[in-house]
Amino acid sequence: MLVLATVVLLICAWQWTSLRSERADIQQQLNRLQGKLQPAQAQAIQPQSLSSTQKSEIKEANQVLDELGRPWPALLLRLEQSASPDVALMAIRPDAAKGRLRLKGEARDVAALLAYLQRLEAVPEMHDVVLDEHELMEKPEGEGMARFIHFGVSARWGQP
What we know:
It is a single chain. The chain is α+β, with helices and mostly antiparallel strands. The chain has a domain at 65-157: Gyrase A, domain 2 (2-Layer Sandwich), CATH 3.30.1360.100. The protein has four helices and four strands, in the order αααββαββ. Strands 1-2-4-3 form a four-stranded antiparallel β-sheet, with helices on one face. A hairpin with a 4-residue loop joins β1 and β2 (100-107). The longest helix has 35 residues, at 2-36.
């Protein structure tokens, strides 16, 4: 029994030593891999090192960011508040880079169009509201002809 216990003890000691050595090797591999995963140091980009293509791409990206940063929900809310049943907006064309807004629509008559223009001028963020174009149109409706005014308005949008 004593010999058998000694043999088992020797086998356990040998296994323990082997596992300890294997653990040390795995720890070294882990340390080496973690060293490779260190974040790279960011270097500042020097503008003179950029090509003209890269500069133009950066400029275009900045323009897109500027357009996305505009208060579009506020603009649409103001236009909705200025609406009336006698005026229908057909198109809204914003030019965020210039801070301009182009509207196309139809009004039931001249009085409705003028009232709409006054409501647009009363919007605090809207400046230089101008009726650029208007045209009296007719279309068949029922047994007669319905008249309406097709119009185009431009304005500057932003803080005063």
